[in-house]
Amino acid sequence: MILILGASSFIGRHLFQAWGPGKALGTHRSHPVPGSVFFDATRMRLLDTLPRPSQCSHAVICYAETKIDACKGDLLRSSELNVRSTKGVIDDLLRLGIKPIFLSSEYVFDGEQGHYTEEDPPNPITVYGSQKLEIERYLAQHGREHAILRLSKVLGTDPEDGTILSRWFTQIRQGEEIRCARDQVFSPIHVDDVVAAITAVIQLNLTGIFHVSNPASCSRLDLLRMLLEHLGEQEAAKRLEEAVARVLREGKSVTYDLKADRNDPSAVGTKEMADAIIAQLKTVKVSIR
Question: In this structure, what CATH number is given to the domain that contains residue 80?
Answer without folding.
Answer: 3.40.50.720
